[in-house]
Amino acid sequence: MSGSADRLPRLLALVPYLMSHPGAQVGEVAEVFGLSEKQLIDDLQLVWMCGLPGHTPGDLIDVSWDGGEILIDNADTIARPLRLGIDEASALLVALRMLAAMPELAEVPGDALPRVVAKLERAAGEGAAAVSSQVAVDVDAAPDALPRVREGLTRRRRLSLRYYVPGRDEVTPREVDPMRVVIVDGRTYLEGWCYRAEAMRLFRLDRMLGVEVLDVPADPPAEAEPIDVAQGVFRPSPTDELVELEVTAAGRWVAEYYPCEKVTELGEGRLRVALRARDEDWILKLALRLGDTGRVVSPPAMAERVREEAERALTLYSQRS
């Protein structure tokens, strides 16, 4: 936390903390703020040069740390801690409620999380509590899937899945050593070592048509590492086919929603995007979903297949209407 964008909020929180903890020790305060003692002293030296306009000794904040004891004075104008806005508090409350719905916390004893939510609601006021209460937080799982996944995680047992793969429109059997449950973009996933793929995989709970807890200990191999889901679930492979699409302004969401290798502005809001296709059926569904807001331009064989499928769909539509 050395950048100015991080430092200013820290200083605005540091001064009220020191005002409410007179005589706090340098080491203790550094630990509270996650800093080294040198970083904290650098902050204190900056605070010492801050104050009201005029910049005379009587206008500046007076702070000292002789002997390791921090004393601060003449900082009444910023003595109150920063408060969260309604939107910030509402977002935090929704996130905490989603966290409470996580399967990993279902069996955790104690009421720490509900108490945090209650304190935040009181501190944020009725506005934030009212806004956040209108957002429903639900773990989206198929019937019986979540309890059995939870059982497999708790007992450390392998799971047998019947899993629907929409890209190929098929149901596949899987044996998975479960490792954790994660929520990404509002969807709930089981993460584990898949013996069919011989790799780590994420499985949406609402695509599990059957889950059975096997009497086999879960024993993922040493190379099984958690998947980084910070940028979303979809991770194209370099071996996937590179497909180029041209989209109108109404189709620009493709560049924001999917990882693209190249995005080129074409003017008038249009884009040319290059992305990796997991399989032909996936890119076909994407192209049909775009409709007249986008088209596949390469490879030519893919563009032709999209055209043929679109014509077939229009023919079927005209026959039924």
Written description of the protein model:
The chain is an alpha+beta fold and 321 residues long. It has four domains: 75 residues, Winged helix-like DNA-binding domain superfamily/Winged helix DNA-binding domain (Arc Repressor Mutant, subunit A); 48 residues; 73 residues, SH3 type barrels; 80 residues, 2-Layer Sandwich (Alpha-Beta Plaits), CATH 3.30.70. The chain is 37% helix and 25% strand. It is built from ten helices and eleven strands. The strands form three sheets. Strands 6-5-4-3-7 form a five-stranded antiparallel sheet, covered by helices on one side. β9 and β10 form a beta hairpin. α2 crosses α3, α4 packs antiparallel against α5 and α9 packs across α10. The N and C termini lie far apart (63 Å).
Supply database-style keywords.
single chain, 321 residues, alpha+beta, Arc Repressor Mutant, subunit A, SH3 type barrels, five-stranded antiparallel β-sheet, four-stranded antiparallel β-sheet, 25% strand, extended, WYL_dom, PafC_HTH, Protein pafC, PafC-like
